[in-house]
Amino acid sequence: MNEYTTLLEQFGLSDKESALYVALLELGQADVAPIAAKAGVKRSTAYVLLDTLKDKGFVSLQDGTGRQYRAEDPRKLLAYEKTKVSQLEKALPGMLGLASSSEL
Q1: b/e for 35-71, b at 16 or more Cβ within 10 A?
Q2: DSSP-assigned letter for residue 99
Q3: 69: CB partners within 8 A, 6+ apart
Q4: Are 77 and 58 in contact (CB under 8 A)?
Q5: Integer Rg of the chain from CA
Q6: Residue 57 in contact with residue 72, Cβ under 8 Å?
Q7: How, if at all, do strands 69-71 and 59-61 pair?
Q8: Do 38 and 31 contact (CB within 8 A), yes or no?
Q9: Cα–Cα distance for residue pair 61/82, rounded to 1 Å
Q10: In what order do the strands lie in the sheet with 69-71?
Q11: Do residues 47 and 32 touch, judged by C-beta distance below 8 A?
Q12: How far is CA 81 from CA 9, 92, 104, in A?
């Protein structure tokens, strides 16, 4: 496991999802077999996890290329995480207002 997969796990990815994303960053655009091989994941598992990564916004399926996947730009992922933090910061006063002061 390398530093990137460890970091991605801190953002809620499993170890196999992290390995697939890093492998795809290194490969560029690829179909499932080389991605799975590079990540050390079974191909059948890779199909399921790549679809999960697609739903999470880490991976996109390239149009007109069959089942070719591409890793999303890590800067896009950072912007997404910053948006989530910003939304939580905006909601925080209301959430604190819901909590009884004796519980905090």
Answers
A1: bbebbebeeeebeebbebbeebebbeeeeeeeebbbb
A2: S
A3: 24, 29, 30, 31, 32, 35, 50, 54, 59, 60, 61, 62
A4: yes
A5: 17
A6: yes
A7: antiparallel
A8: no
A9: 24
A10: 29-30, 69-71, 59-61
A11: yes
A12: 14, 16, 26
One pLDDT digit (tens) per residue for the chain, 104 residues = 588 888 888 888 899 999 999 999 999 999 999 999 999 999 999 999 999 999 988 999 887 767 899 999 989 878 878 888 899 999 998 888 888 665 65
Q: Which amino acid, one-letter code, is at 98?
A: L
Q: Are 72 and 31 in contact (CB under 8 A)?
A: no
Residues 6+ apart with CB under 8 A from 49: 14, 16, 17, 20, 41
Q: 22 is written with which tokens?
A: 């890093």
Phi, psi at residue 60, to the nearest 5°?
-125, 150
